[in-house]
Amino acid sequence: MSDVNADDWVSSGHRPMRFPEFVIVIASIMALNPLAMDMMLPALPNIGAAFKIPVANHLQLVLSTFLIGFGAGQFIMGPLSDRFGRRPVLLGGMTVYAIASVLAIAAPSFETLLLARALQGFGTAATRVIATSIVRDCYVGRRMASVMSLAMMVFIAVPVVAPSFGQAVLLVSQWRGIFVVLALYGLLALAWSVLRLPETLPESERRSLAPADILSAFRQTLTNRQTIGYAMAAGSVMGALFAYVFSAQQVFTGIYHLGHYFPLAFAAIATGVAIAGFLNARLVGRLGMRVISHGALTLYAVVASILLITESLNMLPLALFMALSALMMFSFGMMVANFTALAMEPQGHIAGTASSLYGSITTLIGIAIGMAIGQSFDGTLMPFSVGFFLSTLAALAIVLVVEKGRLFKPHHHPTA
């Protein structure tokens, strides 16, 4: 990656933006999603008190309904962007996000808040799908993985600082103030995209919205062994991550009694993803996507095993849990961009539809696993430890099937 800014490396598809601005813009629109997720973490008890929610696990719905909207929205964003182009769908989704943030500010009931959260998630579905599609429009193979890693390295600061940012907002405002911040950020990202982000899908490459054509694109995506396999594997590892996020506030404040210091612990652990994004962006061009992601998946399985054993032996102090969680984040960060690039690599001709299906499959699988684990929280880390271990084994088994038992080596493409 030492030549990342070389003229022959950088695509002309995102002009007038130069490479650094392109990465930052992609990262900023992708960041709408983790910002809306993680800023809410310290506010969950406040929301529970405001709406008199008697069961603490029910507050996880503030997070999971957002992700349900996000997962469901991706089904339609891809085909729309393949038909009408990236810009109009992206700008429309960001507008929905801003409107939903305003609805959340004024929500008179918990049910209305959940509706607003689902709409927020639906709006960010466009940002995730279109960001991935735009990168795929401009780059392929290891170059695509490198750009995705650089974008993730920039925007990964969001989940690191978002809980602390949310806690800071709570010091000067009520929980509704967090949605004011989210609305303002959404409008800023929208304005930047309107002014600077070009259309990257030429008219000649746009696809019809005829049902037969959409079903054909879905079939091409779902029947591609590499695409569907890595989507399922990514969903499995994402399930453990979602479960961690859903229950993080309860774990750090209920089990380890950190109180208001919880955002600091969460931020320290999340730095593992930032380090992974930086390393992956520098190494993927030399080592390839499979070597890095398969190695990270192996590490993920080792971490899950250690976590389960230590929790079973009642030997999981805060320091060890944080170290294992940081390694989990690091492994996930080394996997996610490469799994996405591997899944999208065969789908350049239908990048929008493939990206939407990939995002929907991974998110909905992740939500199903994450909610099952999160709603099983019983005041201990045993449900999380068991769920993390089983979902990781499932991901490893899926990748072995996809790669026909041969890990770490590309089958056909030297760029992989």
UniProtKB/TrEMBL annotation:
<dbReference type="InterPro" id="IPR005829">
    <property type="entry name" value="Sugar_transporter_CS"/>
</dbReference>
<protein>
    <recommendedName>
        <fullName>Bcr/CflA family efflux transporter</fullName>
    </recommendedName>
</protein>
<keyword id="KW-0472">Membrane</keyword>
<feature type="transmembrane region" description="Helical">
    <location>
        <begin position="258"/>
        <end position="279"/>
    </location>
</feature>
<feature type="domain" description="Major facilitator superfamily (MFS) profile">
    <location>
        <begin position="22"/>
        <end position="406"/>
    </location>
</feature>
<feature type="transmembrane region" description="Helical">
    <location>
        <begin position="381"/>
        <end position="402"/>
    </location>
</feature>
<feature type="transmembrane region" description="Helical">
    <location>
        <begin position="228"/>
        <end position="246"/>
    </location>
</feature>
<dbReference type="Pfam" id="PF07690">
    <property type="entry name" value="MFS_1"/>
</dbReference>
<dbReference type="InterPro" id="IPR020846">
    <property type="entry name" value="MFS_dom"/>
</dbReference>
<keyword id="KW-0997">Cell inner membrane</keyword>
<feature type="transmembrane region" description="Helical">
    <location>
        <begin position="89"/>
        <end position="108"/>
    </location>
</feature>
<dbReference type="GO" id="GO:1990961">
    <property type="term" value="P:xenobiotic detoxification by transmembrane export across the plasma membrane"/>
</dbReference>
<feature type="transmembrane region" description="Helical">
    <location>
        <begin position="356"/>
        <end position="375"/>
    </location>
</feature>
<feature type="transmembrane region" description="Helical">
    <location>
        <begin position="19"/>
        <end position="37"/>
    </location>
</feature>
<feature type="transmembrane region" description="Helical">
    <location>
        <begin position="316"/>
        <end position="344"/>
    </location>
</feature>
<keyword id="KW-0813">Transport</keyword>
<feature type="transmembrane region" description="Helical">
    <location>
        <begin position="178"/>
        <end position="197"/>
    </location>
</feature>
<dbReference type="InterPro" id="IPR004812">
    <property type="entry name" value="Efflux_drug-R_Bcr/CmlA"/>
</dbReference>
<comment type="similarity">
    <text>Belongs to the major facilitator superfamily. Bcr/CmlA family.</text>
</comment>
<dbReference type="GO" id="GO:0042910">
    <property type="term" value="F:xenobiotic transmembrane transporter activity"/>
</dbReference>
<dbReference type="GO" id="GO:0005886">
    <property type="term" value="C:plasma membrane"/>
</dbReference>
<dbReference type="InterPro" id="IPR036259">
    <property type="entry name" value="MFS_trans_sf"/>
</dbReference>
<feature type="transmembrane region" description="Helical">
    <location>
        <begin position="114"/>
        <end position="135"/>
    </location>
</feature>
<keyword id="KW-1003">Cell membrane</keyword>
<feature type="transmembrane region" description="Helical">
    <location>
        <begin position="291"/>
        <end position="310"/>
    </location>
</feature>
<keyword id="KW-1133">Transmembrane helix</keyword>
<dbReference type="InterPro" id="IPR011701">
    <property type="entry name" value="MFS"/>
</dbReference>
<keyword id="KW-0812">Transmembrane</keyword>
<feature type="transmembrane region" description="Helical">
    <location>
        <begin position="57"/>
        <end position="77"/>
    </location>
</feature>
<feature type="transmembrane region" description="Helical">
    <location>
        <begin position="147"/>
        <end position="172"/>
    </location>
</feature>
